[in-house]
Amino acid sequence: MDTLIAGLVQHPCSADREGNLAADVAGIRAAAARGARLVLLQELHATRYFCQREDAACFDWAEPIPGPTTERLGRLAAELSVVIVASLFERRAAGVYHNTAVVLDRDGSLAGRYRKMHIPDDPGFREKYYFTPGDLGFTPIDTSLGRLGVLVCWDQWYPEAARLMALAGAQALLYPTAIGWDPRDPEDERKRQRDAWITVQRAHAIANALPVLACNRCGEEPDPEGSTPGIRFWGSSFAAGPQGEILAEAPADASAVLVAELPLARSETLRRAWPYLRDRRVDAYADLLLRYRD
Amino acid sequence: MDTLIAGLVQHPCSADREGNLAADVAGIRAAAARGARLVLLQELHATRYFCQREDAACFDWAEPIPGPTTERLGRLAAELSVVIVASLFERRAAGVYHNTAVVLDRDGSLAGRYRKMHIPDDPGFREKYYFTPGDLGFTPIDTSLGRLGVLVCWDQWYPEAARLMALAGAQALLYPTAIGWDPRDPEDERKRQRDAWITVQRAHAIANALPVLACNRCGEEPDPEGSTPGIRFWGSSFAAGPQGEILAEAPADASAVLVAELPLARSETLRRAWPYLRDRRVDAYADLLLRYRD
Q1: Does the beta carbon of A287 lie under 8 angstroms from any beta carbon of chain B?
Q2: Which of A231, B15, B84, B287 has its CA 20 to 30 A from that of B71?
Q3: CA distances from A199 to A73, A191, A244, B22, B78 (A)
């Protein structure tokens, strides 16, 4: 397969779970109608980003995998003959919950899952409370459209994660995301943050000669405790080619369905012209397994 | 030290070694006059980029370290009280030559050296013929101005190298470079290549919350064998801050002396706000030491 048409569905999330999923379904249908064979949704797309505060009641929103949402999205995948990459709050067992991306193949089957490996925790993003760190490693998921390097949000800041997916044969990197601004930050700082988010992911494309898809929510979500101005999610979902070139880009502040043609065959052409993988100094990388070298 | 003013000296190289070094010296003086306390030179700045072809006579250009060039630049460093990061063709022994960056401290002493670890080899860039792979690892160099993560050119495509320097306490990443276009490539491809080169290095800044300096030569150099149109070096030297923001940028096709103030203290502020180093999954990175996972 030389190229693959991919879609991304960006929208704000309200407190209405059914409404959020309806926006996802409408976006998937719109992307498929424009030729997309693979559709990426944003992180935790069924709900508000509940990690602004620590509240045990939110664990009620977790669901098993397979479960109601994977069944519903699997039926849609089969109906449209598309691969869907979705992001769920997984209930694995009492007390064991994950931030998990799932891949539904074109026959509706569950092709695989990825449990978020890098878990953030900072004011407004208290994920270490909710999510047990992933234990499936950086393992791509095989589908009828190819091998997908599915990662989640905070992973996108780690070159290690992208590299490990590439070394395991991923043909594209996909990042469901929920990232936004603290509205109290000044505009120049907000610009640097959003630019950094785009740039670091474009660099994963470049360093590994793979296309990258990042799908982020947009819209403002209030702080349930009312102690901060909440989060202004910065949208800006994008598709980049294997030299980091932007193929399609969504606005920061509005819903969007992006469709982009990924030039999969160029990965091999580029890796012949720019043979980074050949020259890695694996004999000298051992300290990457240290927390710090001192 | 909260900030550090850094300079970069970009120029074309001719077959006149003394003329090339004179351009370096003039650039260092100009940068120091504008307040720079650290000056980075381009890769192999004393000579043309001789690696376009494989010619044993070129080994005559290698020199010992310490040697004539480090002595000369050391005297200049002491005179101006600046740290100079230079790039030499090192003759270590008969048959053992390295592509080596040296750091001269403000007292003129040789603070340390870095031997290029990742050695490229592709048409026009036949470095594996000339350069024995470095054996000093990814070890920053301590100076009176701080700990410098000095790397060289092809290293700039490797997130592993940047991360290892950061984990070893580097306060900035520095890349002497010699990279250019094949003039036969179409303009859109040349644009993607240059953008990728800038983007991947900005991402090292972002992923490690460190400033990055990249100093590249400019100008056209003919193929000594006359079988290709030679290389059009793309200049575009730049300084980026720890969020990847561009602080200063040189043109693609002309000499330049850049001066930029590096906000060193922001690295710790940023690492508190964006604690990537805290969350690295070192338990799951072992496969980074593999060539490929199959």
Answers
A1: yes
A2: B15
A3: 31, 12, 9, 37, 38
A200/B138 CB distance under 8 A: no
Q: C-alpha distances in angstroms, B228 versus A257, B129, B182, B223, B242?
A: 45, 19, 9, 6, 39
Residue where the block lists tokens 């760190």 = A133
Sort strands B212-216 and B172-177 into parallel, antiparallel or unpaired.
Answer: parallel
**Cα-based distances in Å from B201 to A154, A283, A284, B184:** 20, 23, 20, 25
Q: What is the ipTM of this complex?
A: 0.98
B148-195 confidence digits (pLDDT tens): 999 999 999 999 999 999 999 999 999 999 999 999 999 999 999 999
Segment B77-88, tens digit of pLDDT? 999 999 999 999
* A4-279 maps to CATH 3.60.110.10: yes
Give the residue extent of every domain in chain B.
4-279
Q: Determine contact: B185 vs chain A, CB below 8 A.
A: no
pTM: 0.98
Contact residues on chain B for A164, CB-CB shorter than 8 A = 284-285, 287-288, 293
Distance from CA of B158 to the nearest CA of A (A): 7
B287–A contact, CB cutoff 8 A: yes
Residues of A in contact with B167 (CB under 8 A): 287-288, 290-293
